[in-house]
Design a protein that fits this description.
With about 475 residues, the protein is of the alpha/beta class. It contains 15 helices and 13 strands. The relative contact order is 0.19.
């Protein structure tokens, strides 16, 4: 048998175990840093498979690692398992139907992500056992990707130090290597403290924190014209100071996401926004309090490793969707708006080129392997804390289809399909591709030389955490 056949068989032989873990995590959706049942399910399998497990990494109860093997190369495989708020949805159901009202749901498919990465780690472990090769594989249980930036805290504490490389993937609607970077993001609370007073009888005695918050937002609106086109600034009110119009509000709190193509640029933008907050406080004679919640770095794709991963994807082949899968995917495709379908076509063109976009324009699902298309300076509009790992070690990641073409992220459709047979097919193929890529590194470690050179050129070889040392994981 070829190495490719060995890896595929190792995953297929335990396929039921990995899909069961995915379904178990899907059925107990938990928010970031609260994934106690989800992490326990993954840890149980790691221990059964002979991994040495360490828990409580970086002071986060649900962060863990599972290590097998000895010697070089040391390969990390990243897993996630947190859910999103208010996205509860019945599995495989192509109409909006909550399981529990307003409860969390796996609207980003992290149940499949954690299980697919587990499949890869276990397959590499089995390969090391059967061949006696030198090498170490480490599965990282990374909590709080959606709200918490778990990998950034783990990177700051040195959890990924010593890795020669890392692989990851994300559920999506196509089977593509990720040649595109992501936006860095700094998450910050801006609070204002004023003085209450009767808004009609003695307004001159009050100092409105709500006015300060509104002035800050106006200032940021004007700032938007003077930032790079790729930058994104979002905000939400956490506290508007109360519900009584006849009281001058003495408190208000805003939560900002400050995104930019590079973490250095995000920090510069944050500095400018701090000046706006302080100016708003001066205008209203209130006090401004600025508290960084967390942050994450932009993702730096390693072209050497991503090319290797794409080779592995081509060797394991397309995701084997059958007619039943296609019918299920079509039932979800029919729920999408014309705008969502148009956005899907645009993304297909970006990732796979115009020919693939045209080929799948009217199809419900795509299991074909996309070519590797490095995107250079282009950054996807979202953010991921995989970026922090990419500043520590050469990193490659991919997407694999677990849903119909055009499925929006963070949607009820995503939750429903993450608990379906579509996710099972996608996570197993992702596991095979990552495992084969890791084994290629084990068989020929010389590839790590060019990968390391590229990493040093792009990052300088030093990780700078997006937030200060006194910022702790926001466990509450």
């Amino acid at each position: 048998m070829s190495v490719r056949d060995d890896i595929c068989k190792l995953v297929d032989d335990k396929a039921a175990l990995f899909t069961q873990v995915s379904d178990k995590v899907w059925s107990t959706p938990e928010l970031g840093f609260k994934e106690f049942q989800s992490s326990a399910a993954l840890i149980e399998v790691l221990k059964q498979e002979g991994f040495s497990v360490e828990t409580g990494l970086a002071g986060i109860p649900t962060a863990f690692s599972g290590t097998f093997g000895s010697g070089k190369p040391v390969i990390g495989i990243l897993g996630e398992f947190d859910a999103l708020p208010s996205l509860s949805q019945e599995a495989s159901c192509p109409s909006k139907k909550e399981v529990v009202k307003d409860a969390p749901g796996h609207g980003c498919g992290h149940n499949a992500l954690g299980a697919g990465s587990l499949a890869a780690a276990v397959a590499v472990k089995d390969y090391l056992q059967s061949t006696g090769k030198s090498g170490t594989v480490i599965y990282y249980g990374c909590p709080g990707e959606e709200f918490g930036c778990g990998k950034a805290f783990m990177a700051r504490e040195g959890c990924f130090d010593g890795l020669d490389c890392a692989f990851s993937w994300h559920p999506g609607d196509c089977f593509a290597p990720m040649g595109v970077s992501s936006l860095a993001n700094i998450s910050v609370f801006f609070s204002f403290v004023g003085r209450t007073s009767h808004a009609a009888a003695s307004p001159q005695l009050g100092r409105s924190a709500l006015d300060a918050a509104e002035l800050m937002n106006i200032g940021v609106q004007f700032l938007r014209e003077h930032v790079s086109p790729e930058a994104r600034i979002h905000y939400a009110f956490h506290d508007v100071g109360g519900t009584a119009p006849n009281v001058v509000q003495d408190r208000a709190k805003l939560h900002y996401y400050i995104r930019a193509p590079k973490i250095a640029e995000a920090k510069e933008l944050f500095a400018r926004i701090q000046k706006i907050a302080k100016g708003a406080a001066m205008m209203t004679e209130t006090e401004s309090i600025i508290q960084i919640k967390d942050g994450l770095s932009d993702y730096v794709p390693n072209e050497v490793l991503t090319t290797l991963l794409n080779e592995a994807m081509n060797e394991v082949g397309e995701v084997p969707f059958d007619e039943e899968d296609k019918a299920l995917a079509q039932s979800f495709r029919d729920t999408l708006t014309p705008a969502e379908k148009a956005a899907s076509a645009q993304q297909l063109g970006m990732l796979g080129g115009p020919d693939l976009a045209q080929k799948y324009a009217d199809k419900a699902i795509c299991g074909e392997v996309f070519p590797y298309r490095p995107m250079g300076h282009i950054a996807m509009p979202g953010s991921t804390d995989v970026g922090d790992v990419s500043y520590v070690t050469p990193t490659a990641q991919m997407t694999a289809p677990t849903a119909c073409l055009g499925t929006p992220g963070h949607s009820w459709q995503q939750t429903a399909q993450a608990g379906s047979r579509l996710a099972h097919k996608g996570l197993l193929q992702a596991g095979k591709a990552m495992a084969l890529a890791a084994v290629k590194v084990i068989e020929d470690p010389s590839v790590l030389g060019p990968a390391q050179e590229e990493y040093l050129k792009k990052t300088g070889g030093k990780y700078n955490c997006p937030f200060p040392d006194d910022v702790k994981p926001y466990l509450d």
